[in-house]
Amino acid sequence: MSMPDNIPSTEVLPPLKVFDSTSMVWDEHCDVLVVGWGAAGACAALEARAEGADVLIADRFTGGGASAKSGGVVYAGGGTRHQQAAGFCDSPEAMFDYLKHETRGVVSDDTLRRFCADSVSNLEWLESHGAPYAHQMPPGGKTSYPPDGYFLYYSGNELVPDHGGPLPPAPRGHRTVGKGQCGAVLYAHLKAACLKAGARPLLQAAARRLVVDAQGHVLGVELWCLSEGSKEARRHARLAARAERLQNFAAGYCKKLRQKVSQLERDFARPRLVRARNGVILSTGGFIFNRQMIEQHAPKFRRNFKVGATGCDGSGLRLGTSVGGEGCGLDRVSAWRFINPPYSWHKGIVVNREGRRFCNEEVYGATLGQPLMEEQGGKAWLVLDAPLRKKAISEALFGGYWWFQSFPALALMLLKVRKGKSLSELASATSMDPAVLRASVLAANAAARGEAPDPFGKSEGGCQVLEQGPFYACDISVTNPLFPLGALTLGGLRVDERSGAVLDQRGQAISGLYAAGRTALGIPSHLYISGLSLADCVFSGRRAGAAVARPQQLQPLPMHIPETT
Fold first, then answer.
1. Are residues 37 and 140 in the same domain?
2. Is residue 246 part of a domain?
Protein backbone atom coordinates (compact mmCIF):
# COMPACT_ATOMS: atom_id res chain seq x y z
CA MET A 1 0.00 0.00 0.00
CA SER A 2 2.74 2.44 -0.88
CA MET A 3 1.12 5.79 -1.38
CA PRO A 4 1.21 7.69 -4.71
CA ASP A 5 3.62 10.59 -4.59
CA ASN A 6 3.88 14.05 -6.14
CA ILE A 7 1.75 15.61 -3.40
CA PRO A 8 2.39 19.37 -3.50
CA SER A 9 4.35 20.55 -0.47
CA THR A 10 4.16 23.93 1.20
CA GLU A 11 6.12 26.39 -0.89
CA VAL A 12 9.02 27.82 1.11
CA LEU A 13 10.63 30.96 -0.25
CA PRO A 14 14.03 32.52 0.49
CA PRO A 15 13.92 34.78 3.55
CA LEU A 16 12.60 38.31 3.28
CA LYS A 17 15.56 40.51 4.24
CA VAL A 18 14.86 43.92 5.73
CA PHE A 19 17.00 46.56 7.41
CA ASP A 20 15.26 46.25 10.79
CA SER A 21 11.82 45.59 12.29
CA THR A 22 10.74 49.22 11.97
CA SER A 23 11.20 49.20 8.21
CA MET A 24 8.24 46.82 7.80
CA VAL A 25 4.49 47.26 8.05
CA TRP A 26 3.39 44.25 10.08
CA ASP A 27 -0.14 42.82 9.99
CA GLU A 28 0.17 41.20 13.42
CA HIS A 29 2.43 41.39 16.47
CA CYS A 30 3.18 38.88 19.23
CA ASP A 31 6.00 37.93 21.59
CA VAL A 32 6.20 34.31 20.40
CA LEU A 33 5.02 32.87 17.10
CA VAL A 34 4.60 29.10 17.04
CA VAL A 35 4.44 27.64 13.52
CA GLY A 36 2.62 24.29 13.65
CA TRP A 37 -0.08 23.42 16.18
CA GLY A 38 0.53 19.76 16.91
CA ALA A 39 1.62 18.40 20.28
CA ALA A 40 5.04 20.11 20.22
CA GLY A 41 3.57 23.45 19.16
CA ALA A 42 0.85 23.23 21.79
CA CYS A 43 3.35 22.43 24.54
CA ALA A 44 5.59 25.30 23.42
CA ALA A 45 2.65 27.70 23.42
CA LEU A 46 1.50 26.61 26.88
CA GLU A 47 4.96 27.01 28.36
CA ALA A 48 5.46 30.43 26.77
CA ARG A 49 2.07 31.59 28.01
CA ALA A 50 2.95 30.35 31.51
CA GLU A 51 5.95 32.72 31.33
CA GLY A 52 3.64 35.59 30.45
CA ALA A 53 4.40 35.85 26.73
CA ASP A 54 1.82 36.88 24.14
CA VAL A 55 1.61 33.78 21.91
CA LEU A 56 0.26 33.39 18.39
CA ILE A 57 -0.02 29.88 16.93
CA ALA A 58 -0.17 29.48 13.15
CA ASP A 59 -1.15 26.24 11.44
CA ARG A 60 -1.55 25.39 7.77
CA PHE A 61 -4.71 23.47 8.64
CA THR A 62 -6.78 23.54 11.84
CA GLY A 63 -4.28 21.99 14.25
CA GLY A 64 -3.45 18.48 15.39
CA GLY A 65 -1.11 17.25 12.66
CA ALA A 66 0.49 13.85 13.13
CA SER A 67 0.01 14.07 16.91
CA ALA A 68 -3.77 13.91 16.59
CA LYS A 69 -3.49 10.87 14.28
CA SER A 70 -1.13 9.02 16.63
CA GLY A 71 -1.89 6.41 19.24
CA GLY A 72 -1.55 8.99 22.00
CA VAL A 73 1.24 7.05 23.71
CA VAL A 74 3.68 9.06 25.83
CA TYR A 75 6.92 7.33 26.82
CA ALA A 76 7.32 8.13 30.53
CA GLY A 77 9.23 6.46 33.31
CA GLY A 78 11.40 7.04 36.30
CA GLY A 79 8.57 6.21 38.69
CA THR A 80 5.28 7.64 37.44
CA ARG A 81 2.33 7.10 39.75
CA HIS A 82 0.80 4.78 37.15
CA GLN A 83 3.90 2.59 37.10
CA GLN A 84 3.78 2.46 40.88
CA ALA A 85 0.07 1.59 40.87
CA ALA A 86 0.83 -1.30 38.51
CA GLY A 87 3.50 -2.57 40.91
CA PHE A 88 6.65 -1.47 39.08
CA CYS A 89 9.62 0.26 40.61
CA ASP A 90 11.29 2.41 37.96
CA SER A 91 13.92 5.12 38.23
CA PRO A 92 15.43 7.82 35.99
CA GLU A 93 18.67 5.81 36.04
CA ALA A 94 16.97 2.68 34.70
CA MET A 95 15.20 4.72 32.04
CA PHE A 96 18.47 6.35 31.02
CA ASP A 97 20.30 3.01 30.82
CA TYR A 98 17.66 1.67 28.46
CA LEU A 99 17.31 4.78 26.29
CA LYS A 100 21.08 5.15 26.04
CA HIS A 101 21.04 1.89 24.11
CA GLU A 102 18.21 3.02 21.81
CA THR A 103 19.26 6.62 21.15
CA ARG A 104 22.92 5.82 20.38
CA GLY A 105 24.30 9.28 21.09
CA VAL A 106 21.85 11.27 18.96
CA VAL A 107 21.65 13.70 21.89
CA SER A 108 24.18 14.29 24.64
CA ASP A 109 24.09 12.21 27.81
CA ASP A 110 23.25 15.35 29.78
CA THR A 111 20.19 16.00 27.62
CA LEU A 112 19.07 12.37 27.81
CA ARG A 113 19.49 12.39 31.60
CA ARG A 114 17.44 15.59 31.79
CA PHE A 115 14.72 14.00 29.62
CA CYS A 116 14.58 11.01 31.98
CA ALA A 117 14.71 13.14 35.13
CA ASP A 118 11.86 15.34 33.84
CA SER A 119 9.74 12.40 32.67
CA VAL A 120 7.52 12.11 35.75
CA SER A 121 6.90 15.85 35.98
CA ASN A 122 6.20 16.12 32.24
CA LEU A 123 3.51 13.45 32.45
CA GLU A 124 2.04 15.20 35.49
CA TRP A 125 2.14 18.45 33.50
CA LEU A 126 0.07 16.81 30.75
CA GLU A 127 -2.37 15.59 33.38
CA SER A 128 -2.62 19.11 34.81
CA HIS A 129 -3.82 20.20 31.37
CA GLY A 130 -6.53 17.54 31.30
CA ALA A 131 -4.87 14.55 29.61
CA PRO A 132 -5.77 11.39 31.59
CA TYR A 133 -3.54 8.34 32.15
CA ALA A 134 -4.03 5.05 33.98
CA HIS A 135 -2.16 1.91 35.06
CA GLN A 136 -4.13 -1.02 33.59
CA MET A 137 -1.84 -3.34 31.62
CA PRO A 138 -2.91 -5.67 28.78
CA PRO A 139 -2.85 -9.42 29.40
CA GLY A 140 -0.76 -11.84 27.34
CA GLY A 141 2.35 -11.01 25.42
CA LYS A 142 3.89 -7.95 23.83
CA THR A 143 1.70 -5.83 21.57
CA SER A 144 2.22 -2.97 19.15
CA TYR A 145 -0.76 -1.12 20.66
CA PRO A 146 -2.87 -2.17 23.67
CA PRO A 147 -6.61 -2.91 23.40
CA ASP A 148 -9.22 -0.53 24.75
CA GLY A 149 -9.25 -0.49 28.52
CA TYR A 150 -5.47 -0.88 28.85
CA PHE A 151 -3.16 2.10 29.17
CA LEU A 152 0.29 1.04 30.39
CA TYR A 153 2.53 -1.36 28.46
CA TYR A 154 6.03 -2.23 27.30
CA SER A 155 6.13 -0.03 24.22
CA GLY A 156 9.73 -0.63 23.14
CA ASN A 157 12.44 -3.29 23.52
CA GLU A 158 12.55 -3.25 27.32
CA LEU A 159 11.94 -7.01 27.57
CA VAL A 160 14.43 -7.97 24.86
CA PRO A 161 17.50 -9.35 26.69
CA ASP A 162 20.24 -7.52 24.78
CA HIS A 163 18.42 -4.17 24.70
CA GLY A 164 17.76 -3.57 28.38
CA GLY A 165 20.21 -2.11 30.85
CA PRO A 166 21.45 -3.70 34.07
CA LEU A 167 18.36 -2.55 36.00
CA PRO A 168 14.99 -4.35 35.88
CA PRO A 169 12.76 -3.40 32.92
CA ALA A 170 9.58 -1.42 33.45
CA PRO A 171 6.62 -0.57 31.20
CA ARG A 172 6.86 3.07 30.10
CA GLY A 173 4.29 3.36 27.32
CA HIS A 174 1.51 5.55 28.82
CA ARG A 175 -1.47 5.51 26.46
CA THR A 176 -3.79 8.48 26.93
CA VAL A 177 -7.08 7.23 28.37
CA GLY A 178 -9.78 7.05 25.71
CA LYS A 179 -11.20 4.78 23.05
CA GLY A 180 -9.48 3.89 19.81
CA GLN A 181 -6.35 5.71 18.66
CA CYS A 182 -5.96 8.19 21.50
CA GLY A 183 -3.78 10.83 19.87
CA ALA A 184 -6.93 12.79 19.11
CA VAL A 185 -7.86 12.65 22.81
CA LEU A 186 -4.48 13.95 23.91
CA TYR A 187 -4.46 16.69 21.30
CA ALA A 188 -7.99 17.83 22.17
CA HIS A 189 -6.87 18.44 25.76
CA LEU A 190 -3.75 20.31 24.64
CA LYS A 191 -5.73 22.45 22.20
CA ALA A 192 -8.32 23.32 24.84
CA ALA A 193 -5.53 24.16 27.29
CA CYS A 194 -3.91 26.51 24.76
CA LEU A 195 -7.15 28.37 24.19
CA LYS A 196 -7.88 28.56 27.92
CA ALA A 197 -4.37 29.92 28.54
CA GLY A 198 -4.93 32.72 26.03
CA ALA A 199 -2.79 31.58 23.09
CA ARG A 200 -4.17 33.08 19.88
CA PRO A 201 -4.65 30.68 16.95
CA LEU A 202 -4.29 31.72 13.32
CA LEU A 203 -5.58 28.77 11.28
CA GLN A 204 -5.29 27.83 7.61
CA ALA A 205 -2.13 29.92 7.57
CA ALA A 206 0.93 28.37 5.90
CA ALA A 207 4.37 29.76 6.72
CA ARG A 208 6.08 30.54 3.42
CA ARG A 209 9.19 32.45 4.48
CA LEU A 210 11.03 33.94 7.42
CA VAL A 211 11.72 37.65 7.80
CA VAL A 212 15.27 38.53 8.89
CA ASP A 213 17.12 41.77 9.54
CA ALA A 214 20.57 42.85 8.34
CA GLN A 215 22.26 40.90 11.15
CA GLY A 216 20.37 37.68 10.34
CA HIS A 217 18.06 37.96 13.36
CA VAL A 218 14.68 36.32 12.68
CA LEU A 219 12.03 39.00 13.11
CA GLY A 220 8.93 37.14 12.07
CA VAL A 221 7.18 35.11 9.39
CA GLU A 222 5.27 35.68 6.19
CA LEU A 223 2.13 33.54 6.41
CA TRP A 224 -0.22 32.86 3.52
CA CYS A 225 -3.73 32.69 4.91
CA LEU A 226 -7.16 31.76 3.66
CA SER A 227 -9.90 34.21 4.56
CA GLU A 228 -11.48 33.05 7.83
CA GLY A 229 -14.98 31.69 7.30
CA SER A 230 -14.86 31.94 3.51
CA LYS A 231 -16.28 29.18 1.35
CA GLU A 232 -12.73 28.41 0.17
CA ALA A 233 -11.55 28.03 3.78
CA ARG A 234 -14.48 25.75 4.60
CA ARG A 235 -13.80 23.58 1.56
CA HIS A 236 -10.08 23.51 2.39
CA ALA A 237 -10.90 22.25 5.91
CA ARG A 238 -13.33 19.58 4.63
CA LEU A 239 -10.92 18.21 2.03
CA ALA A 240 -7.95 18.19 4.41
CA ALA A 241 -9.92 16.43 7.15
CA ARG A 242 -11.19 13.81 4.71
CA ALA A 243 -7.66 13.12 3.49
CA GLU A 244 -6.47 12.49 7.04
CA ARG A 245 -9.41 10.21 7.88
CA LEU A 246 -9.11 8.04 4.77
CA GLN A 247 -5.34 7.85 4.45
CA ASN A 248 -5.14 4.25 5.69
CA PHE A 249 -7.88 3.06 3.35
CA ALA A 250 -7.59 5.01 0.08
CA ALA A 251 -4.16 6.55 -0.29
CA GLY A 252 -4.57 7.31 -4.00
CA TYR A 253 -7.86 9.12 -3.42
CA CYS A 254 -6.28 11.08 -0.57
CA LYS A 255 -3.50 12.19 -2.90
CA LYS A 256 -6.12 13.83 -5.12
CA LEU A 257 -7.72 15.48 -2.10
CA ARG A 258 -4.36 16.93 -1.06
CA GLN A 259 -3.77 18.25 -4.56
CA LYS A 260 -7.10 20.10 -4.35
CA VAL A 261 -6.12 21.47 -0.93
CA SER A 262 -2.87 22.83 -2.35
CA GLN A 263 -4.68 24.34 -5.32
CA LEU A 264 -7.04 26.22 -2.99
CA GLU A 265 -4.03 27.62 -1.16
CA ARG A 266 -2.39 28.74 -4.39
CA ASP A 267 -5.56 30.37 -5.69
CA PHE A 268 -6.98 32.02 -2.58
CA ALA A 269 -4.35 32.42 0.18
CA ARG A 270 -3.04 35.92 0.81
CA PRO A 271 0.13 37.06 2.62
CA ARG A 272 0.12 38.21 6.24
CA LEU A 273 3.28 39.44 7.99
CA VAL A 274 3.63 38.56 11.66
CA ARG A 275 6.24 40.18 13.89
CA ALA A 276 7.49 37.92 16.69
CA ARG A 277 9.32 40.12 19.19
CA ASN A 278 11.00 37.29 21.13
CA GLY A 279 11.24 34.62 18.48
CA VAL A 280 9.69 32.00 16.19
CA ILE A 281 9.28 28.31 17.08
CA LEU A 282 9.11 25.85 14.16
CA SER A 283 7.06 22.74 15.00
CA THR A 284 5.55 21.50 11.74
CA GLY A 285 6.58 17.84 11.99
CA GLY A 286 8.80 15.75 9.74
CA PHE A 287 8.93 15.35 5.95
CA ILE A 288 7.55 11.92 5.10
CA PHE A 289 5.04 13.53 2.67
CA ASN A 290 7.76 15.36 0.73
CA ARG A 291 8.73 13.14 -2.20
CA GLN A 292 11.72 15.25 -3.21
CA MET A 293 13.23 15.28 0.28
CA ILE A 294 12.76 11.51 0.67
CA GLU A 295 14.44 10.97 -2.71
CA GLN A 296 17.31 13.22 -1.66
CA HIS A 297 17.92 12.02 1.88
CA ALA A 298 16.33 8.57 2.32
CA PRO A 299 15.62 7.00 -1.09
CA LYS A 300 15.41 3.48 0.33
CA PHE A 301 12.13 4.47 2.00
CA ARG A 302 10.27 5.96 -0.97
CA ARG A 303 8.02 2.87 -1.28
CA ASN A 304 6.89 2.85 2.34
CA PHE A 305 3.40 3.74 3.48
CA LYS A 306 3.57 7.24 4.94
CA VAL A 307 2.86 7.63 8.65
CA GLY A 308 1.95 11.19 9.53
CA ALA A 309 -0.26 14.03 8.36
CA THR A 310 -0.38 16.21 5.26
CA GLY A 311 1.62 18.91 7.01
CA CYS A 312 4.57 16.55 7.43
CA ASP A 313 6.16 17.97 4.29
CA GLY A 314 9.36 19.38 5.77
CA SER A 315 8.19 23.00 5.72
CA GLY A 316 9.66 23.78 9.16
CA LEU A 317 12.95 22.14 8.25
CA ARG A 318 13.09 24.05 4.96
CA LEU A 319 12.29 27.33 6.68
CA GLY A 320 15.13 26.71 9.13
CA THR A 321 17.68 25.84 6.47
CA SER A 322 16.63 28.88 4.41
CA VAL A 323 18.30 31.11 7.01
CA GLY A 324 21.35 28.92 7.60
CA GLY A 325 20.03 26.24 9.96
CA GLU A 326 21.59 22.80 9.62
CA GLY A 327 19.57 19.66 9.04
CA CYS A 328 20.90 16.56 10.75
CA GLY A 329 20.02 12.85 10.63
CA LEU A 330 17.82 13.38 7.60
CA ASP A 331 18.62 9.89 6.35
CA ARG A 332 17.11 8.37 9.50
CA VAL A 333 13.63 6.99 8.84
CA SER A 334 11.66 4.74 11.16
CA ALA A 335 10.11 1.83 9.25
CA TRP A 336 7.47 -0.12 11.17
CA ARG A 337 7.34 -3.85 10.58
CA PHE A 338 5.40 -5.10 13.60
CA ILE A 339 5.05 -8.86 13.97
CA ASN A 340 3.23 -8.74 17.29
CA PRO A 341 0.39 -9.34 17.60
CA PRO A 342 -0.33 -12.15 16.87
CA TYR A 343 1.82 -13.06 19.83
CA SER A 344 2.93 -16.38 18.30
CA TRP A 345 4.49 -14.74 15.27
CA HIS A 346 7.73 -13.84 17.00
CA LYS A 347 8.33 -17.55 17.66
CA GLY A 348 8.81 -18.01 13.93
CA ILE A 349 11.89 -16.71 12.14
CA VAL A 350 12.34 -13.75 9.79
CA VAL A 351 14.63 -14.37 6.81
CA ASN A 352 15.81 -12.39 3.80
CA ARG A 353 15.50 -13.26 0.11
CA GLU A 354 18.19 -15.93 0.42
CA GLY A 355 16.58 -17.52 3.45
CA ARG A 356 19.12 -16.11 5.88
CA ARG A 357 17.88 -14.95 9.27
CA PHE A 358 18.95 -11.38 10.12
CA CYS A 359 17.22 -10.25 13.32
CA ASN A 360 15.74 -11.10 16.69
CA GLU A 361 12.03 -11.47 16.00
CA GLU A 362 11.09 -10.28 19.50
CA VAL A 363 12.20 -6.70 18.89
CA TYR A 364 10.00 -3.64 18.48
CA GLY A 365 8.61 -3.12 14.98
CA ALA A 366 10.90 -0.21 14.12
CA THR A 367 13.93 -2.16 15.33
CA LEU A 368 12.98 -4.89 12.85
CA GLY A 369 11.97 -2.49 10.09
CA GLN A 370 15.30 -0.66 10.08
CA PRO A 371 17.52 -3.58 8.94
CA LEU A 372 14.74 -4.87 6.71
CA MET A 373 14.76 -1.60 4.76
CA GLU A 374 18.38 -0.52 5.14
CA GLU A 375 20.12 -3.87 4.72
CA GLN A 376 17.68 -6.25 3.02
CA GLY A 377 16.23 -4.01 0.33
CA GLY A 378 12.78 -4.11 1.91
CA LYS A 379 12.32 -7.83 1.19
CA ALA A 380 11.78 -10.48 3.90
CA TRP A 381 9.71 -13.51 4.86
CA LEU A 382 8.23 -14.67 8.16
CA VAL A 383 8.62 -18.45 8.30
CA LEU A 384 6.17 -20.56 10.34
CA ASP A 385 5.46 -24.25 10.57
CA ALA A 386 1.93 -25.68 10.52
CA PRO A 387 1.22 -25.65 14.31
CA LEU A 388 2.58 -22.13 14.74
CA ARG A 389 0.54 -20.81 11.82
CA LYS A 390 -2.61 -22.46 13.16
CA LYS A 391 -2.08 -20.91 16.57
CA ALA A 392 -1.38 -17.47 15.09
CA ILE A 393 -4.57 -17.61 13.00
CA SER A 394 -6.55 -18.46 16.14
CA GLU A 395 -4.95 -15.54 17.97
CA ALA A 396 -5.78 -13.14 15.14
CA LEU A 397 -9.40 -14.31 15.12
CA PHE A 398 -10.07 -14.53 18.85
CA GLY A 399 -7.29 -12.62 20.59
CA GLY A 400 -9.20 -9.35 20.97
CA TYR A 401 -6.75 -7.42 18.82
CA TRP A 402 -7.47 -4.19 16.96
CA TRP A 403 -8.77 -4.57 13.40
CA PHE A 404 -5.55 -3.00 12.09
CA GLN A 405 -3.64 -5.77 13.87
CA SER A 406 -5.85 -8.78 13.12
CA PHE A 407 -7.03 -8.15 9.54
CA PRO A 408 -3.58 -7.66 7.97
CA ALA A 409 -2.26 -10.64 9.96
CA LEU A 410 -5.01 -12.90 8.62
CA ALA A 411 -4.53 -11.60 5.09
CA LEU A 412 -0.80 -12.28 5.36
CA MET A 413 -1.26 -15.87 6.56
CA LEU A 414 -4.14 -16.75 4.25
CA LEU A 415 -3.50 -14.77 1.06
CA LYS A 416 0.08 -13.52 0.77
CA VAL A 417 1.67 -16.79 1.80
CA ARG A 418 3.87 -19.42 0.14
CA LYS A 419 3.67 -23.07 1.19
CA GLY A 420 5.91 -26.10 1.03
CA LYS A 421 5.57 -29.61 2.42
CA SER A 422 9.27 -29.43 3.24
CA LEU A 423 11.79 -26.65 3.69
CA SER A 424 13.17 -27.46 0.25
CA GLU A 425 9.75 -27.01 -1.32
CA LEU A 426 9.27 -23.75 0.57
CA ALA A 427 12.63 -22.51 -0.68
CA SER A 428 11.62 -23.36 -4.23
CA ALA A 429 8.28 -21.52 -3.84
CA THR A 430 10.00 -18.37 -2.59
CA SER A 431 13.22 -18.50 -4.66
CA MET A 432 15.31 -18.82 -1.49
CA ASP A 433 18.52 -20.82 -1.33
CA PRO A 434 17.39 -24.19 0.17
CA ALA A 435 20.68 -24.75 2.00
CA VAL A 436 20.61 -21.27 3.54
CA LEU A 437 16.97 -21.57 4.64
CA ARG A 438 17.58 -25.01 6.11
CA ALA A 439 20.60 -23.76 8.05
CA SER A 440 18.58 -20.84 9.43
CA VAL A 441 15.79 -23.11 10.65
CA LEU A 442 18.17 -25.70 12.12
CA ALA A 443 20.08 -23.03 14.06
CA ALA A 444 16.83 -21.61 15.45
CA ASN A 445 15.62 -25.11 16.35
CA ALA A 446 18.87 -25.86 18.17
CA ALA A 447 18.35 -22.73 20.27
CA ALA A 448 14.74 -23.72 20.99
CA ARG A 449 15.91 -27.14 22.20
CA GLY A 450 18.54 -25.54 24.43
CA GLU A 451 21.40 -27.04 22.46
CA ALA A 452 22.94 -23.66 21.57
CA PRO A 453 22.29 -19.97 22.24
CA ASP A 454 20.06 -18.20 19.78
CA PRO A 455 22.30 -16.49 17.19
CA PHE A 456 20.38 -13.21 17.56
CA GLY A 457 19.79 -13.21 21.30
CA LYS A 458 16.15 -14.26 21.32
CA SER A 459 14.88 -15.14 24.78
CA GLU A 460 14.22 -18.73 25.74
CA GLY A 461 10.47 -18.09 25.78
CA GLY A 462 10.59 -16.65 22.28
CA CYS A 463 12.14 -19.74 20.73
CA GLN A 464 10.10 -22.60 19.27
CA VAL A 465 11.07 -25.61 17.20
CA LEU A 466 9.85 -25.37 13.61
CA GLU A 467 9.65 -28.96 12.37
CA GLN A 468 6.06 -29.90 11.46
CA GLY A 469 5.23 -29.31 7.82
CA PRO A 470 3.81 -27.91 5.79
CA PHE A 471 5.96 -24.80 6.21
CA TYR A 472 4.75 -21.31 5.38
CA ALA A 473 6.52 -18.12 4.31
CA CYS A 474 4.52 -14.94 4.87
CA ASP A 475 5.59 -11.97 2.75
CA ILE A 476 6.47 -9.09 5.09
CA SER A 477 8.17 -7.04 2.37
CA VAL A 478 7.60 -3.34 1.78
CA THR A 479 5.92 -4.18 -1.54
CA ASN A 480 3.12 -6.26 0.01
CA PRO A 481 -0.10 -4.19 -0.41
CA LEU A 482 -1.95 -6.29 2.18
CA PHE A 483 0.58 -5.64 4.93
CA PRO A 484 1.68 -1.98 4.74
CA LEU A 485 5.13 -1.12 6.03
CA GLY A 486 4.74 2.36 7.47
CA ALA A 487 7.49 4.93 7.89
CA LEU A 488 8.12 8.38 9.35
CA THR A 489 11.17 10.61 9.28
CA LEU A 490 13.31 11.16 12.37
CA GLY A 491 15.89 13.82 11.55
CA GLY A 492 15.49 17.56 11.83
CA LEU A 493 17.16 20.88 12.51
CA ARG A 494 20.14 20.76 14.83
CA VAL A 495 19.32 22.73 17.96
CA ASP A 496 20.94 23.92 21.14
CA GLU A 497 19.95 21.14 23.50
CA ARG A 498 19.17 23.42 26.41
CA SER A 499 17.03 25.98 24.60
CA GLY A 500 15.90 24.50 21.29
CA ALA A 501 17.54 27.39 19.39
CA VAL A 502 18.29 26.43 15.78
CA LEU A 503 22.01 26.13 15.08
CA ASP A 504 23.93 26.90 11.92
CA GLN A 505 26.77 24.80 10.50
CA ARG A 506 29.26 26.46 12.87
CA GLY A 507 27.15 25.54 15.88
CA GLN A 508 26.03 29.12 16.44
CA ALA A 509 22.43 29.88 17.39
CA ILE A 510 20.35 31.70 14.80
CA SER A 511 18.93 34.61 16.75
CA GLY A 512 15.17 34.49 17.14
CA LEU A 513 14.65 30.97 15.72
CA TYR A 514 13.81 27.77 17.63
CA ALA A 515 12.50 24.31 16.75
CA ALA A 516 10.65 21.52 18.55
CA GLY A 517 9.11 18.11 17.91
CA ARG A 518 9.99 16.29 14.71
CA THR A 519 11.16 19.53 13.10
CA ALA A 520 14.16 19.35 15.46
CA LEU A 521 16.77 16.69 16.00
CA GLY A 522 15.75 15.09 19.28
CA ILE A 523 15.47 12.08 21.56
CA PRO A 524 13.83 9.74 18.98
CA SER A 525 15.97 10.81 16.03
CA HIS A 526 18.09 7.64 15.94
CA LEU A 527 15.47 4.92 16.38
CA TYR A 528 11.79 5.27 17.21
CA ILE A 529 9.93 3.40 19.94
CA SER A 530 6.26 3.95 20.70
CA GLY A 531 5.61 7.04 22.79
CA LEU A 532 9.07 8.53 22.43
CA SER A 533 8.06 11.07 19.79
CA LEU A 534 5.14 12.48 21.81
CA ALA A 535 7.29 12.51 24.95
CA ASP A 536 9.91 14.48 23.04
CA CYS A 537 7.20 16.85 21.78
CA VAL A 538 6.45 17.66 25.42
CA PHE A 539 10.12 17.89 26.40
CA SER A 540 11.33 19.90 23.41
CA GLY A 541 8.15 21.96 23.13
CA ARG A 542 8.29 23.09 26.75
CA ARG A 543 12.03 23.72 26.39
CA ALA A 544 11.59 25.99 23.38
CA GLY A 545 8.56 27.77 24.82
CA ALA A 546 10.37 28.66 28.02
CA ALA A 547 13.53 29.73 26.18
CA VAL A 548 11.72 32.04 23.76
CA ALA A 549 9.66 33.59 26.53
CA ARG A 550 12.83 34.46 28.50
CA PRO A 551 15.71 34.32 25.97
CA GLN A 552 18.09 36.43 28.03
CA GLN A 553 18.27 33.82 30.81
CA LEU A 554 19.97 31.03 28.83
CA GLN A 555 23.48 30.73 27.48
CA PRO A 556 24.08 28.24 24.66
CA LEU A 557 25.62 24.87 25.41
CA PRO A 558 28.69 23.57 23.58
CA MET A 559 27.52 21.97 20.34
CA HIS A 560 26.86 18.22 20.60
CA ILE A 561 27.79 16.26 17.46
CA PRO A 562 25.25 13.43 17.12
CA GLU A 563 26.69 10.02 16.40
CA THR A 564 24.23 9.68 13.50
CA THR A 565 26.48 12.02 11.52
1. no
2. no
